[in-house]
Structure to design on (233 residues):
């Protein structure tokens, strides 16, 4: 399931509801992304996105994950709009019979969401405002998935 | 006529998020050249296309891709999702 929204959400509640009632699942892995303010200078993080393409791009990444790993279910929730430090930005959850597939698929989803989902983060600080630059290491992280995936 | 969209700092630099333009450009690069020739703000925004990405009809593409049948072109900096 995919949700792109400006509303906040409770990752705990989402995780409890995820894959509920299924008995073919032995492993659920989740990742939650939070607005970080290490230097205590951030006031707001504004997340811009490309409505339409965002849903298409993430759906494609989710489909690819389902193709590569035997997943019982996949969940991606990603917010846009103005967020405060400490707020949840997004979450990913994967469910599978065994843990390896769930861990690897969640890792794969995060690597691709970082660099291939059309979101742009802007940090509005007390004194300055700047767009977050994409990191070379995030782009390089995709390379490890271009070779054949593990079972 | 095609819809051209701009996001993030590119949108701010150009001063708008979307416009409909009439163009005979054969490729994305041709379209970028047309835009650059329009006004200084476009020339500055598109100064270095290696720092930009392009999507054609909401699919990531390349600057040398043809525009045949394309209805929506979007330009933006590298994405920072997650």
């Amino acid at each position: 399931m995919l949700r792109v929204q400006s509303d906040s959400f409770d990752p705990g509640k989402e995780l409890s509801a995820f894959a509920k009632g299924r008995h073919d699942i032995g492993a659920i892995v989740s990742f939650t992304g939070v607005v970080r303010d290490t230097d205590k200078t951030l006031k707001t993080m504004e997340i811009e996105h490309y409505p339409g393409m965002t849903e298409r791009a993430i759906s494609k990444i989710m489909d690819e994950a389902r193709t590569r790993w035997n997943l019982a279910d996949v969940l991606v929730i990603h917010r846009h709009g103005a967020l405060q430090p400490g707020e949840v930005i997004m979450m990913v959850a994967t469910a599978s019979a065994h843990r390896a597939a769930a861990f690897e698929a969640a890792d794969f989803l995060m690597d691709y969401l970082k660099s291939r989902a059309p979101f742009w983060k802007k940090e509005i600080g007390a004194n300055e405002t700047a767009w977050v630059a994409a990191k070379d290491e995030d782009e390089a992280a995709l390379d490890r998935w271009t070779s054949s995936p593990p079972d | 006529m095609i819809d051209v969209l701009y996001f993030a700092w590119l949108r701010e630099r150009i001063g708008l998020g979307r416009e409909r333009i009439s163009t005979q450009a054969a490729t994305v690069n041709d379209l970028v050249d047309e835009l650059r020739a329009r006004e200084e703000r476009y020339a500055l925004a598109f100064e270095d296309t290696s720092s930009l990405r392009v999507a054609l009809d909401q699919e990531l593409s390349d600057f040398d891709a043809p525009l045949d049948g394309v209805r929506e072109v979007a330009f933006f900096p590298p994405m920072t999702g997650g």
